Amino acid sequence: MTITPGPGLSRLNTIYRQGVLGRRPAVPADFAELERRARRASSARAWAYVAGGAGEGRTMRRNRAAFDRWAIVPRMASGTLERDLSVTLLGERHATPMLLAPVGAAALMGDDSDLHIARAAAATGTAYVLSNQGCNPMEDCAAAMGDASRWFQLYWSKDEALVDSLIARAEAAGAGALVVTLDTTVLGWRPQDLNLGSLPFSRGQGIAQYTSDPRFRQIVAERTARPVTRGKTPVTAGAVRTLLAMTRNHPGRFWANLRSPEPRASVETFLDIYSNPGLSWDHLATLRDRTKLPVVLKGILHPDDARRAFDLGADAVVVSNHGGRQVDNAIASLDALVTIRRELGPGPALLLDSGIRSGADVFTALALGANAVLLGRPYLYGFALAGQGGIEDVIRNVVAELDLTMALTGAPDIPSITRRLLAAQP
Predict the structure, then answer these.
(1) 250 catalytic, yes or no?
(2) pLDDT tens sequence across 277-322
(3) Which residues make up the CATH 3.20.20.70 domain(s) of the chain?
(4) Cα 338 to Cα 332: distance, rounded to the nearest angstrom
């Protein structure tokens, strides 16, 4: 009988064989070194936005501390030669229980970021949740992915027609689900960005889904057609750099954009309407009449909110505190997952986002009740170091460690990863 090595052994073999030739991986295998090198490779503005968190950073630290409160208990002599890492989510089979989380303004880490992420996801068989605050239009990302699985993140705009337009485009782009982000109706207090006076959207980064949208362009055209009385803007070097950034990031030719009011008007319009501070359950209740896609609500941390989401017809929820970027001193996503799973039972589909750094983290989250997880910052760090290949390396490393952890705990498949393989730590 021929045994096919799983992704864990295959990854080990690849790296060690390269080592024989004197070649070391471009992307570190541990998160701490990955983060250190990515920081050196990034600009101050990029690092503040991508790596920063809300307030004093307590939620980010709490996300990690929550994982440290659980220990994996390896089991011996299982006799398992092969492992099945696949899961079924919303009726679709996925090769692994990991998706790539949506990350806005990723072009801070490199040009055409969303296209590279899309291609890396497709190359590794990993579903990608296309960002509503992306730097490439969703249609371009979908074309880059071919038949590979993608979902689409939706930020609920103040303009309802724009909400419908984005949903329709996601459907046409082959999205397998609509992921509505609930926890960013307003931006959180983010000192790293504030200390630099830096918001990528104000420079036209992260608004490509909008500038490529017919409804949004109509709003901008109406805005530019109206006479606007503005106070005189001081001409500073910073103002000139911002204007040039808006011009470069806007679709079309640079010199034509430079003479046009559209780039600036697009940024101002985006900042005015991209998210609806008044988002309510009444808004969410309309989704079943607005799309045939499975609906996933992201940003749930309380069991009552999770229960209400499913009562409204949601197909899944993402237990998430937005990577610690919105509310300082918030509950860790992993702790919230434990409570929500206990109160709602085994049936509802729960995904975990925030704090996943390794394959062992994925294993722990699955054992505590997650059906799948979303990976965020680590793959962007890989992108900062080695482009698309760096993203692929991070994905393969995390999946490899998950596979090896399963092998060493005697877990032949994802359903067998349960709390019996964990021990709570004091």
Answers:
(1) no
(2) 999 999 999 999 999 999 999 999 999 999 999 999 999 999 999 9
(3) 7-192+276-424
(4) 10
